């Protein structure tokens, strides 16, 4: 692999990970804030407004970095993957343009209205604005995943004039691969948002400060998280079995299946050995369950690597362990949310210090899980950049080594500065709690009216 | 509608989206460039933050849309433009990072070093963006060093006198736009200081614009299209007239009219450039046979038609709610009520 290709792949991976540190919280948290604003309209209870203000402030800090790291992604297809862009642009460019027109304008404009208008506009307009932001962020996920879905499962195209051209737009937007990924991603983002709110709330509840405020916030997040986390194993399972059907190589990597088999068993503990095309350890085996996962039939046939040419296989270890990690964390979240729900029903939430601490220390795990999921999706598709149509090695720009070194080093440096500033501010304002800021705001509201 | 027609319409739309971006971000970048010179204390900085705060994000999406539209409608131009101008594109990207973070993070901590760093990050990035975009678009008007095997230049081959003049033109136009915007949106000392900047800046901008047109006529093939269809001369003529009117209104202190005219100047300037480039999108300075025309770069007919439909529906909606947001924040910002980014 050439150095430019390798470094371009590094750069893409690093920038997309950075971007995806901010995006899931944006998508998840905004739904909770919109819900709080709606409750404020319905009940006129100022507590909900304080909640929206407090969480909205954390949202805004996170949002701006989601925006700036997103621009990098849009530029990068052209700067670093120009051959890809030329070949695929006729289909891949449109969802990005639609994303900007339909989603980015909506979220950015209404974020500005909410941020600067929230003390001037009516509660109804506040709620409307924040719902528009929520709509924008969620729609943006749909369009970018529509673009990614085409890379995973190309549909509605024709190869003509030396490139891929659009033949059926409807097929592109109804691509089942994309919709599976969209639902799975968005629901996972709700888990990230819920965890974030619960963890910050737990920090304050452990200190017995602003108890009413953070108990309520915790409850809202708990409900959203409970629904999302409970649905995720089913959604994720559908998404993975569909992916395995469409991309047998990715499918074989998920469970490191070396030989094509009927009645494939499932090993709870398994260590693959890609060198020798076997598993070193297969332990705690459940017969036939593997086949069921892939085919919904205990005797179903599962395609193994013996049917896949060596140069069309992804890195098995990366895909296998990322998938296991994601699934294990997903199941942990289900348990945690249900236990939290049990404590809440028993009215023991605030006293359960161990549970609150567990939530607090688990706050980064949903980020790990959701990024592991994207590793499965993206590394699992290799060596293809567009499945079956274009290899990643053919997609890279004809740029020089010094150019890619310059951009990679600068991006890592600047992103690290931004990330440090972001984490510092998030921690600072999360710990500060709601009252100091709302006290001054209350004063100003009187001043204005 | 034939493939060629819809491709030409998309060329027009492509130019229009870039133009709207420069008109809108022009005042934001201008405010950014002048920021530390207009505001002397935190309250005044709050005023300036609030003057652009509700709008800058929505304005920047016009840039993202311009990028997306280039990708969707002219994939080959998107791919070549961004990879040929790799280093300047990266610099634009870095400046966009710190423009946004600088503006929004500046007052989120009270440490003087923190505030100073982000304040200057905001200012320098705004300045860099105006310069880089000016140089980049002047080079598009001038022609790039594109040969048979692609781009043959470097970052430094963009920095010829005409390119630098383009950078200076954007800086001066945006500075005027920013100063006038601050006067429109605020009252008090910042507005008065902005007026002190606006007067000399408007003179500089008009002079640089005149020089730029002279240089364009002497150094670039841009005006050939105008000679072919003389009616088009009305567009650069309007740019010049609007600049003069802007100058007049600045000196008469009729700020609303002056701002309208600086926006029209930027609009007609960009329109002049895009009309002059037609049908090239990536003109080669070495030989026109290496240029990429809009017809060569255009996406498929179906894609262009669908995207045209999307644009016809969505652009008016977007313009509608963005106008509404300007109406919502039409009150002047005073030192006492300004909150800025807290």
From TrEMBL, chain A:
GO annotation, biological process: aerobic electron transport chain
The record's subcellular location field reads: Cell inner membrane; Cell membrane
Record's keyword terms, sorted: Cell inner membrane, Cell membrane, Electron transport, Heme, Iron, Membrane, Metal-binding, Oxidoreductase, Transmembrane, Transmembrane helix, Transport
Keyword Metal-binding present in the record's keywords: the answer is yes
Q: Does the keyword tRNA processing apply?
A: no
Q: Which GO terms describe its molecular function?
A: electron transfer activity; heme binding; metal ion binding; oxidoreductase activity, acting on diphenols and related substances as donors, oxygen as acceptor
Task: Name the Pfam families for this protein.
Answer: Cyt_bd_oxida_I (PF01654)
Q: What is its main location?
A: membrane
Transmembrane segments in this chain: where?
Answer: 12-35, 55-76, 96-116, 128-146, 177-206, 218-236, 318-343, 355-377, 404-427
- GO CC terms of this entry: cytochrome complex; plasma membrane
Membrane topology category: Multi-pass membrane protein
InterPro entries assigned to the protein according to its UniProt record, in alphabetical order: Cyt-d_ubiquinol_oxidase_su_1 (IPR002585)
Q: What is its EC number?
A: 1.10.3.-
- What does the similarity note say? Belongs to the cytochrome ubiquinol oxidase subunit 1 family.
- The protein here is known as Cytochrome d ubiquinol oxidase subunit 1
Species annotation: Anoxybacillus ayderensis
Q: What is the lineage of its organism?
A: Bacteria, Bacillati, Bacillota, Bacilli, Bacillales
UniProtKB/TrEMBL annotation, chain B:
Cell membrane is among the record's keywords: yes
- Could you tell me where this protein is found in the cell? Cell membrane
Q: Which UniProt keywords apply?
A: Cell membrane, Electron transport, Heme, Iron, Membrane, Metal-binding, Oxidoreductase, Transmembrane, Transmembrane helix, Transport
Q: Name one GO molecular function term.
A: oxidoreductase activity, acting on diphenols and related substances as donors, oxygen as acceptor
Residue ranges of the TM segments: 6-39, 84-106, 118-142, 162-184, 196-216, 231-251, 258-282, 302-324
Which Gene Ontology terms of cellular component type are present? cytochrome complex; plasma membrane
A GO BP entry is: aerobic electron transport chain
The UniProt record lists the EC number as 1.10.3.-
What is its membrane topology? Answer: Multi-pass membrane protein
* Key word Transmembrane present: yes
The text of the family note is: Belongs to the cytochrome ubiquinol oxidase subunit 2 family.
Q: Quote the protein name from its UniProt record.
A: Cytochrome d ubiquinol oxidase subunit 2
Organism in which the protein naturally occurs? Anoxybacillus ayderensis
């Amino acid at each position: 692999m050439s150095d430019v290709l390798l470094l371009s792949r590094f750069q893409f991976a690093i920038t997309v990970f950075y971007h995806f540190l901010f995006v899931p919280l944006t998508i998840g948290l905004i739904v909770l804030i919109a819900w709080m604003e709606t409750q404020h309209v319905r009940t006129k209870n100022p507590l909900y407004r304080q909640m929206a203000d407090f969480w909205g402030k954390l949202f805004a800090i996170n949002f701006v970095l989601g925006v700036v790291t997103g621009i990098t992604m849009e530029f990068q297809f052209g700067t670093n993957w120009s051959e890809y862009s030329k070949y695929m642009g006729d289909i891949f460019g449109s969802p990005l343009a639609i994303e900007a027109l339909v989603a980015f304008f909506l979220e950015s404009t209404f974020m500005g209205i909410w941020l600067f208008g929230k003390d001037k506009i009516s509660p109804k307009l506040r709620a409307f604005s924040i719902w528009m932001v929520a709509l924008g962020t969620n729609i943006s996920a749909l369009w970018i995943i529509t673009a990614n879905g085409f890379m995973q499962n190309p549909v509605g195209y024709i190869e003509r004039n030396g490139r891929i051209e659009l033949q059926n737009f409807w097929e592109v937007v109804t691509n089942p691969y994309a919709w599976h990924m969209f639902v799975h991603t968005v629901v996972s983002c709700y888990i990230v948002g819920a965890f974030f709110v619960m963890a910050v709330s737990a920090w304050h509840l452990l200190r017995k400060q602003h108890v009413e405020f953070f108990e309520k916030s915790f409850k809202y997040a708990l409900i959203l998280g409970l629904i999302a986390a409970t649905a995720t194993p089913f959604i994720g399972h559908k998404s993975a079995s569909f992916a395995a059907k469409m991309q047998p190589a990715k499918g074989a990597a998920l469970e490191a299946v070396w030989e094509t088999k009927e009645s494939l068993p499932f090993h709870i503990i398994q260590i693959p050995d890609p060198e020798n095309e076997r598993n070193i350890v297969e332990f705690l085996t459940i017969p036939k369950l593997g086949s069921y996962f892939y085919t919904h039939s205990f005797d179903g046939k599962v395609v193994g690597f013996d049917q896949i040419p060596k140069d069309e296989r992804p890195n098995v270890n990366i895909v296998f362990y990322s998938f296991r990690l994601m699934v294990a964390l997903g199941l942990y979240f289900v348990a945690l949310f249900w236990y939290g729900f049990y404590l809440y029903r028993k009215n023991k939430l605030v006293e359960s210090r161990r549970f609150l601490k567990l939530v607090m220390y688990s706050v980064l795990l949903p980020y790990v899980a959701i990024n592991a999921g994207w590793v499965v999706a993206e590394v699992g598709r290799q060596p293809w950049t567009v499945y079956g149509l274009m290899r990643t090695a053919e997609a890279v720009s004809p740029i020089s080594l010094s150019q890619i070194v310059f951009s990679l080093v600068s991006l890592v440096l600047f992103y690290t500065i931004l990330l440090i500033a972001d984490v510092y501010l998030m921690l600072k304002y999360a710990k500060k709690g709601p009252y100091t800021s709302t006290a001054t705001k209350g004063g100003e509201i009187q001043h204005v009216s | 509608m034939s493939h060629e027609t819809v491709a030409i319409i998309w060329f027009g739309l492509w130019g229009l989206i870039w133009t709207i971006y420069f008109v809108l971000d022009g005042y934001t970048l201008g405010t950014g460039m002048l920021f530390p010179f207009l505001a002397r204390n935190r309250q005044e900085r709050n005023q300036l933050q609030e003057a652009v705060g509700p709008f800058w994000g929505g304005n920047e999406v016009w840039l993202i849309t311009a990028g997306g539209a280039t990708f969707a409608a002219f994939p080959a131009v998107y791919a070549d433009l961004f990879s040929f101008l790799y280093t300047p594109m990266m610099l634009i990207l870095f400046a966009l990072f710190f423009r946004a973070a600088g503006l929004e993070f500046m007052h989120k901590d009270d440490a003087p070093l923190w505030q100073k760093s982000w304040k200057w990050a905001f200012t320098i990035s705004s300045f860099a963006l105006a310069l880089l975009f000016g140089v980049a678009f002047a080079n598009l008007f001038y022609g790039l060093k594109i040969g048979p095997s692609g781009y043959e230049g470097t970052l430094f081959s963009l920095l010829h006198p005409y390119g630098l003049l383009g950078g200076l033109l954007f800086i001066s136009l945006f500075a005027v736009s920013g100063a006038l915007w601050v006067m429109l949106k605020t009252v008090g000392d910042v507005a008065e200081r902005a007026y002190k900047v606006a007067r000399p800046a408007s003179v500089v901008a008009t002079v640089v614009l005149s020089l730029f047109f002279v240089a364009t006529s002497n150094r670039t093939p841009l005006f050939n299209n105008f000679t072919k269809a003389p009616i088009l001369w009305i567009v650069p003529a309007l740019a010049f007239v609007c600049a003069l009117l802007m100058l007049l209104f600045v000196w008469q202190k009729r700020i609303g009219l002056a701002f309208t005219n600086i926006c029209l100047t930027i609009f007609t300037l960009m329109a002049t450039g895009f009309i002059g480039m037609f049908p090239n999108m990536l003109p080669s300075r070495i030989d026109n046979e290496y240029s990429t025309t809009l017809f060569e770069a255009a996406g498929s007919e179906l894609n262009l038609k669908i995207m045209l439909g999307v644009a016809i529906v969505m652009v008016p909606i977007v313009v509608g709610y963005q106008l509404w947001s300007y109406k919502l924040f039409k009150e002047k910002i005073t030192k006492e009520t300004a909150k800025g980014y807290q």
